[in-house]
Description:
CATH class of the domain at 461-558: Alpha Beta
Largest sheet: 7 strands, mixed
Protein name: Long-chain-fatty-acid--CoA ligase
Number of helices: 17
CATH topology of the domain at 461-558: GMP Synthetase, Chain A, domain 3
Low-confidence stretches: 561-569
CATH architecture of the domain at 461-558: 2-Layer Sandwich
Distance between the termini: 58 Å
Strand content: 15-25%
GO molecular function: acid-thiol ligase activity
CATH superfamily of the domain at 461-558: ANL, C-terminal domain
Domain AMP-binding enzyme C-terminal: 472-546
Number of strands: 26
InterPro entries: AMP-bd_C (IPR025110), AMP-bd_C_sf (IPR045851), AMP-binding_CS (IPR020845), AMP-dep_synth/lig_dom (IPR000873), ANL_N_sf (IPR042099), ATP-dep_AMP-bd_enzyme (IPR050237)
Structural class: alpha/beta
Helix content: 25-40%
Radius of gyration: 24 Å
Domain AMP-dependent synthetase/ligase: 31-421
Strand order of the largest sheet: 7-6-5-3-4-8-9
Amino acid sequence: MTDPRPWLAQYAPGVPHEVEVPDRSLVDLLDDAARRVPDRAALDFLGGTTTYAELAAAVDRGAEVLRAAGVTAGDRVALVLPNCPQHVVAFYAALRLGAVVVEHNPLYTADELEQQFADHGARVVVAWDKVVPVVDERRGSTAVETVFAVDLTRALPWTKRLALRLPVARARATREAMTGPAPGARDWDREVAAAAPVSSGHPRPAPTDVALLQYTGGTTGAPKLAILSHRNLLANVLQSRAWVPGLRDGDEVFYGILPLFHAYGLTLCLTTAVSIGATIVLFPRFDVDQVLDATRRRPPTFLPAVPPVYERLAERAEATGADLSSVRYAISGAMSLPPAIVERWEAVTGGLLVEGYGMTETSPIALGNPMSSARRPGTVGVPFPSTEIRVVDPEDPDTDRPVGEAGELLIRGPQVFAGYWNRPQETARALHAGGWVRTGDVVVQDADGFVTVVDRIKELIITGGFNVYPSEVESVLRLAPEVDDAAVVGVPGAGGGEEVVAAVVWRGEPGEPERLRAHCREHLAGYKVPRRVVAIDALPRTQIGKVLRREVRDSVTATADRDPGDRDG
């Protein structure tokens, strides 16, 4: 019988159609790696290394520190950390106890952290010492009882730690950027170093236990916590590994440029790497020169990132002659990957760069371009092993759209989340009958199963009764030589509808709005042409590069009265 899933024929050689998810936890993956490759470097942080045996031992001690602080199975443990070895230890230590990790962006304000802490109710926090004062600012209105402070400099090699103590301005500035006073907090590094390992008889997490509460939806609505089990996350690890059959156990170097507090970075830069005993080179933030310096010390073989990272690395490598030829595989996500970046990256590295698709609710990866000549730049690829998709009528998700016709993407598979934390109504809206999660993305699927994302339903602009997809307009705007970057949003207009407004980052001297709108009229129907063009210095983005459309909308709305701009009649 013919398989009704045409995308299976597009899989790279060696990629299975299905993955079997064993009854294990994420902690078991770390223990397995420590047994297989105990002396291999698990982590490299600015030259400081931690072997798998050392990492597993530190996790056991960290688990005892958390247990002594009152953490039990099911408790939430909040992490407010950049990428660093202590982040990895705290993550697995909490999981070892059967506790639930809640990841937070360390750049958040006191207001943002207060709202999130009140949401999940964590009593124990492990935070970067520079962030501890921010956590403490609103601590009284949350359930937080214990805060552990992490000093990033403790993970540096001793030569660099010594250099930071030199009485020179540069050393002082670097030290102040990496660490700061954390009055009232307990010293995570010191306590973990001094602790005994947690008892081997302490209960371990079950596959169905919740492992992670991950914030999602912050760019289109109120942030909410996606509930992800060990099984969800393990399934996505196995799917990701299967997708790249050329990965060699115990012989890969993953670059952790993406933040671990984001689902994309957590799965591709950490848990998948641990599952194959890879070395993870951690970067506390993306710095193109720091990354290229690291390639000389420990050349990468697998580099998950976002399009701007590939573009900047390729540009700098071309300018400096830096060698990126060790990167055999790269997977891009979070935003559209322009074919021009693919071409440039592959010319510099000789490796493959493919685009994938996912969302926090799918742990997060659900589709990817094949790691082969079958890939199709401009699409997000085909469903991962053990993953099914449907393209449906957004108003009636029980009605499938024909091949080639746009509709909402639905996904089903072992990586799909259980729902939102304490949000039953939001959960009911997101999960459709039969285990399908509604993505809110408008896509088109072709006859071979390849999927192209058209736009977000929530970002759809309705003007004069017509639908306008912002990404379509943005693509046209970026074709103009005077435009460096652009974001398109809908703002309230006369008569209760919306107006299409473009926020533009000019390349060099400011351009002429009317000339840009004339350019748009050459490529777009009149109702899609921006009614206003607003100059902006830089587009606000998340740490992984997604445009914060709410902030763009607020900005262009604020300029409406004082700078109405040119308008079509």
